[in-house]
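User: Show me an example of a complex going from sequences to structure tokens.

Assistant: Sure. Here are the input components:
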Amino acid sequence: MSAIVTARNLGKRYKNTVALDHVSFQIESGRIVGLIGPNGAGKTTALKAILGLTDFQGELNVLGLDPRTQRDKLMEQVCFIADVAVLPRWIRVREAVDFVANVHPRFSRAKCEAFLARTKLTPDMRVKQMSKGMIVQLHLALVMAIDARLLVLDEPTLGLDILYRKQFYQSLLEDYFDEHKTIVVTTHQVEEVENILTDLMFIRDGKVVLDTDMESLGDRFAEVMVGADRAAAARALKPLDERQVFGKSIFLFDGADRATLEALGEVRRPSVSDLFVATMKGTYA
Amino acid sequence: MKTFYWLVKREFWENRGSFLFAPVICGGVVLLLTLMGVIAGEVFRSRAGVHVSGMDFAQLRSHLDAGDLDKFSMALDITMLVPSMLIGLVLFFVVFFYCTNTLADERRDRSILFWKSLPISDRATVLSKVVSAVVVAPVIATLAGIAAGLALLVLLAIAASFHGVNLWEMLWSLPHPLRITAHLLSNLPLYVVWSLPTVGWLMLCSAWARSKQFLWALALPIGSGILVGWFGLMDLFHRGTLWYWKNIVGRLLLSVFPGGWMPDHALGMAMGGADASRMFVSLTDYSLLLTPPFLIGAVAGIVMIAGAIWLRRWRVDG
């Protein structure tokens, strides 16, 4: 495995706030990385830095290139969907396909047309006549027909209904992703990406607070449902979080001994959203 | 090169209304109004019972001396130019607002994020917009002006031929449609160079100002002109305030007006009723390209375009 993105001491300051506080991380090839954090945590700034859309301090290497100075070259191998509403409103489906086909060396018109054939989009349709879901279908068809090594998705399904959201991730997994590609995605709809991620990165106040792959997530974190009688014993083990359900307490542990936990009650793998809530507690307070 | 062609094509797609339809409709309106005028004239004439039938143009001609014929021929030449002048006015507004909005609009509707997700440099993008403003729009406007002008001549000639006027003479021997067409076309290279300072300034404002690009673009030059006049700054350089307004403020805002380089005396000549085609001599004088107003203006324009390219590289939001 080779690193697609390497960040060392990545920093970015806006006038009054620190968006990125000297973070270091690495993204390997062939992974689907979820970059998850509350609003204003620095996710978008990190993605912008990777895509060469903003200046920054520190070192950042994307596919062997510096996004600040070699952006034009970088964009041949990197693609991104910033959010659902960025396709120009005047453009027609036919024009969008023609344009990308003629300016992008790694675009396959045949692939794109095959994706479009599965939708209700017609060549003469303009973006301004489409629903949000249809715009995303067009954008996704364009992007999936590009043989990019790194695909960055920043809240790609915001404002879509659940049918479009499911279809979006399903298409990405079935028709696009393979071991030569890498996807970085930020989203608030954690439940929907939970099953497709291979890696997870939590970001809070400009810092990476958790960086793990999904296999070791299950080894490291555990959720235990404990009856009221043994709650005190569980609390003594210093859980990350505690919540009440039907008179029982659910404790979330980081790196606790598996056998000890099993003695307390039923042990489960925590969901990413519960882990997220526990990690981010007090962010907005 | 292929990418650049498609970038220009994209600008045309987006601005088909102002680049193509505006000049074509303007020419069409001129023709329609003329046609309505001709018909109204005919109706009025027949109702009033005026009879000019039997009037022989050839006979009439024999009474005209060379000076009268010259005047008549010039009137026809100017008639052919009328659509081009009106379309030129339309072109001024089209290019002005295109340059003011093009880089701001893509940030406002966030489509810049889509364009920037493709491997296209900011330089190629901005230059494709410059080419759209100084080549694509003016070429279409000029062709539309020529076509409407020729159609206008034909329309008048046909109307006149109902009254015994020789069609051929009205179309060919008196006016100079070919010469005027050639002059209008050879204007274009001068327009490209002359308009650069305004195009550069407006695009710089479009790339730089986060909002109200139009106001910034107007307020900065005009405000500076007022300050310069107030403090009499230009006296330091032994130039009047008027010089500043004409050569700085005017060039930043009005150079996208076709034929703006025409010297005052030529303009006076045209207004004073000299030969219309003679007025073109100064309009298509390529040696002007090497004079300071063209050269310094072009250099200033290129510097400002470079500034717009740099700003587009880093300014993505708002």
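The lines above are the inputs; the final block is the predicted structure for all two components together. Residues 2-314 of chain B form one domain.
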